[in-house]
Amino acid sequence: MTLWTSADAAAATGGQATRDFAITGVSIDTRTIQPGDLFVALQAARDGHDFVATALEKGAAAALVSRIPEGVDPDAPLLVAGDVLAALEALGRAGRARMQGRVIGITGSVGKTSTKEMARIALTGQGNIHAAEASYNNHWGVPLTLARMPADTDFAIIEIGMNHPGEIEPLARMARPHVAMITTVAAAHLEAFGAIEGIAREKGAIFRALMQPGTAILPEDLPVTQILRDCADEAGAIVIGFGAHGMAKPVKADTQDGITQVRARVLGETVDFTLASAGTHFVMNAVGVLAALSAAGADVVAAGRALSDWHPPLGRGAVEDLGGIRLIDDAYNSNPTSLSAGLATLARLTGGRRVAILGDMLELGPDEIAMHSGMADDPAMASVDLIHTAGSRMRALHDALPPARRGIHAENAAELAARIGELVAMGDIVLVKGSKSSKVSTVVDALRRTRQATPPGERTS
């Protein structure tokens, strides 16, 4: 199905098409490009113009460029615009303008991507659904998602992220959501904001982009909840809180074998759902999602049933059986709030020794060492039998732990991965968590290699 004609794309971007074409998708990566895509030659670490010829050879219907690249025929199918990123943004705004369905925007310090996936899966069977791919939530990810959106979309879920002040609102104004949800506010990117109150105000800026009348879905019970409410009130939004004391709240949650059965009250309705996770933070976010979907006009009971098909994304808390151990792969990001949630999930699982393998938490600002050492006092730590650490910051936690729980400390994740045989034993329940740049995922990779090669019943040593 045609997503954009050359005439539509030229009108949206103010660019000039070298010939007629019709595109069925939009891509920024020649490694995954599909026949019929519009290749967008963004300039980042590499100049996308260097890959236009490759994109066309792989079947791209056209390329969005600021100039005719070297080695590309001038009559090749091109959309020439003054600035490629600005043209992508314009195409995204045009995609949003022609769509008549409902848009849900999701942001938060933790859990944006997993919550976006919850919403996407929960809406199964309720029309044409469009959602951001992976973690496409930044200055190019949001317009790319909007540019890819079919005109007949009934529900769109747009993930919106930030690293620095002033990033949320412009991206949210591209998406123009009818409903905006904040998953939580935590000590992430503190280097740029200085204090968690600043992060809360930046997250709350999403509400200023709401279509009117818009609905703000926000977490109750946070120290900064009132800041979020103030942001929503200033934007004239309808406010729905989720959490233990919210208008959307879990009434009962029973966990067994890593599966949680939940009964929730969502805006007056009782909703039963099942989550493939033992994490209470996932339960809370699922309740928030159901509130957001209800506010967007979806069938919330049907959405609850569909949630049983959701699983945590790779690297974001999925629990798997792996060669005689249970692995919680949460190696994509980390901050004190998400680490506390990960440890709580580990504590809720039973059946073996609980082991945590932790990499540095990054971008926490001047108090980062105290934040790392302070994790030794997390309530869930009492249920963890052994904690291995990697990185200069995690050294502070290693030193703060009681000797009986102090495992191996390494200068980096690669050194820890090289000693994988010393870290775990048959029957262990293992949490691996750290900021992405700590590369603690190398430990996950090593576990997968060694445990898959270890016959059942054998112990690693």
From TrEMBL:
The gene is murF. Involved in cell wall formation. Catalyzes the final step in the synthesis of UDP-N-acetylmuramoyl-pentapeptide, the precursor of murein. NCBIfam families: murF. Its EC number is 6.3.2.10. GO terms for cellular component: cytoplasm. Keywords: ATP-binding, Cell cycle, Cell division, Cell shape, Cell wall biogenesis/degradation, Cytoplasm, Ligase, Nucleotide-binding, Peptidoglycan synthesis. It is found in: Cytoplasm. This is UDP-N-acetylmuramoyl-tripeptide--D-alanyl-D-alanine ligase. It comes from the Bacteria. Its main location: cytoplasm. GO terms for molecular function: ATP binding; UDP-N-acetylmuramoyl-tripeptide-D-alanyl-D-alanine ligase activity; UDP-N-acetylmuramoylalanyl-D-glutamyl-2,6-diaminopimelate-D-alanyl-D-alanine ligase activity.
